[in-house]
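step=predict obj=DNA repair protein Rad52 n=239
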Amino acid sequence: MFDKKQLEILNQELDSSRIKTRDKGNISLSYIEGHDVIETANKIFGFGNWSYSISKLEHVSQEQNQNQNQVICYKAIVQVLVHSENHTQELSREDVGFGTGVAKTQADAHEGAAKEAVTDALKRAMRSFGNQFGNSLYDKTKNHQANNESKPTTNYRQSSPTPTVTNVTTNHNRNIKQSYDPYEYESLFKIGLDVVEQNGFLIVSGDDIFAKKDSIKACGFRWDGKTKTWYKQLEEGAA
């Protein structure tokens, strides 16, 4: 399917100059930009030898933040097709992405959320092709660097050994490494919520957590009426 030169490039380490970072919800996220992914695909696979299509684009939630801005979340599913040079073979990859638009008007918030969801899904689908599309950024054993500066360590507070808790608080002196990908919950960070790891579970903390239920449910969390918490079990092998 891929020639020797393409395989060599795909397996190379990701150039640190392509890695960007941004802070969300008191954590630092490492990522590569959408236009970078498209340019890299053009260089490795060639113009006309790959394409992507939007399989699904869904509006999943709408909130209003403390600044009276509209906060709208979208979910997208994107399929990527990569062809061999003579178009006799093809590989298909598909993944889901989430996007959040924050703006004064609903129209602008919808536009931002939809575009971000599609870009996120595209990047997640492309990462299955290797390091050049950011797959190595998901390897927690590697200390990635962005712009020649060390990536800050993202950490979460752990609780006593009980699966559900009350009065969840966030420790901003984080010194325990997280065992999941925080980028998946960026939509929650944008509406002022946080995600705390506690004994194999993820717990949502912050103000008005029930009022923001649509955004929380869209990320796969469930409501525990007894303890008044949103929770989600960590996948096995995530740590």
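step=describe
The chain has five helices and eleven strands.
step=end
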